[in-house]
Amino acid sequence: MAWENCLENLRVSLAPKQVLDMDTIDWKQVNQDALDNDGFKKGDPYYLACQGRHCTENVNQTPQEHALCQCKDINGKPLPDCKPPSFLYPFNASVCVNIETKEFNSKSGRSCTKQGDSWYQLTCYCCCSCFAYGTQIGIPEGSKAIEQFSIGDQVLTANVTAHGDGVNLSWTPATVSFSSGTGPDGYQPTMVFIRHGGAGSIIVTPDHLFLMPNGKLKRANRLVPGVDFLVSAEGVPVEINEVSLGEYRGGVHHIATDKEFSGEISGHLLISEGIVSGDFNLQIHAAALKEAFFVDDHDELPTIGQPEYEQTNTELLSDEYTSFLLMAGDDDEKKIVPHTRKFYVHGKHTTVIPNDAASYLSQAQAVDVGNHAPKYDFSEVGIGYATVSYALKLFQGFYPDIVFHHDVGRMETNAYAFEQYGKQVVVITGGMTRIKGFGLEGIVTILAHMIARLQKIQPQDELGYTSVAMADYYSTSVLRNVFFGNMYVTTFESGIKQIAELVLDSIDEENDAYEGDPFAPTREVRIDSITAGNTMNFPPEEAGGPVLEGLEVTAATAVLPVLTPRHFVTDDISEEMAEEVYQSLVAAKVLSEEGELTAEVSVDTDLSALFSEQSEGLKRLLTEEVRYILLHATSTVSVTFNLPLSTGTAFDPKAFLISPEAKVKFVRLGEDTNTLLISASLQKEVEYTITVPRILKSDNGSTLNPDKKTATFTLA
């Protein structure tokens, strides 16, 4: 990638603000306020393009850059549900720069400014280096609310043809011959709320008929979320995300077409909130349709709220993500809900979260936030609901293999992520989304964290999810995937502010640490982790993830070469002869009983006792073959590190230096992955220094400390 191409792309992406290359800045001309407050993060007085070397040598090597640009963790493992951005994709990072000398490094925060008064941490940009009432009914002109229909109005109806793969639908206008309802202030003790396709919803009577993908009909009160599918106006199956049974205060209205009922369903199917369902004619003639048009054994299927329904569909009550079960209460328990499309969702029966789910807050922390954070009550649940729905829809587009669910009825303040029935699921509770002042930015920041938990990046918690603080760190990569350019910057800044002030600050001091996580990050560590991810730095050490220069050589030892009879087998020396050679060398004390090379071997070493039964010429040939093997036998140097090394690394012997000069034959990882085993030709009683290459990384991505990359040893 040419740096000029990145610079040009930054200028296009960040327009109309100006973008300047940091290498060309005359810092004496820069306003001191811009330096002190990092005005560059908002393009004031302009945006900065990081130094090219800083991007390629520092930023592009961080775990965050790997996650964002390559959709891989630091060890090259692909991240699930992640699509790499395009070539030259721009992102904000930061650099620690000396405005007097123009020196720069990757230090951040106080570690940057402690270097002197001329050092500032500034935001700059790099590029990826690689790579019931109100139900809308379809009409010829579009749609209108069901209560607005009058007799004689036009409505779209479907002719349906079932085939092996689904249904074909053709839509034609028909005339409304029946239109009647309860009026807007009616009360319905039992209604069914259905959420479909992620964002769509409809409230209907329990006997309302829906078209299934196989061309059959099924009543609303027998639908099973996660199992049944509805049908869109285009004939495409639509997943049912939620089915709720509950009280409803508002109007209920029915219409029917003028087509005479003849035992067929064609001409009586309408578009209801984008889904195909039956008109009133089908409901009143249901008995005549059961044999031909209802799903098999329809009347034997349990209905919502029955114990049999729960027993048959146990996944809905034991850990299914999309199911509410809201039963009607006694009259004296009823409460008026201002909005006519509201169910009473006071948490009587809600999603059951599995015990092995990852959560945004620990249980104790969630209790604290629930007690202290200001919230809207359930009568105000509509405030911000569209924002939550938008956020879920937005993330569904970028992460289509994850099911996102807003569980309005859950009282606790938390979010969850888990895997069940082959699906990944993210649930954010009504307790969280009802926090006053908690907007889109805070919601998407939590969603991004839960996605990062599901990506199962190392280090992991005991359940196999990405650990808490590292999920905070990687969450900014998820946000960058969803929000482009400056949208990401503004979303991140507002999001982290909402998280800190409305959520984390509501946690009591005694619950500061996240119990249950292997690293038990405090609130401060979590904020630092998110910030490090945003600035493309390594995470804080307390997060448990990769540490900048955290890998160190701790010791090196060497042992004599160890030979076996197999070492002496050649084209001229058979296995039987090799065994005799080995025993002779042990007898001559050239080798120990264990095969260690105990004597100095040179071209003058007396090996005349070998091959005594061979002719003089052959004896000389075979003896020199043995001498060559002894002369080139290598010692093993064990280099120990403070952290396990990455198992996916290929080790180049030429990159390992031994002084005084000694030839390194090969390098491999020991059974203990904290150790490298290096084969080299060494001399006894000589003090050696081994230097390992900077490219080495630990298994969690920590880079090598340049001041801790050597060790001394002696072959005794």
Automatic annotation (TrEMBL):
Domain Hint residues, every copy: 128-233
Coiled-coil blocks: none
PROSITE patterns, alphabetized: INTEIN_N_TER (PS50817)
One Gene Ontology biological process: intein-mediated protein splicing
SUPFAM superfamilies: Hedgehog/intein (Hint) domain
Protein name as it appears in the record: Hint domain-containing protein
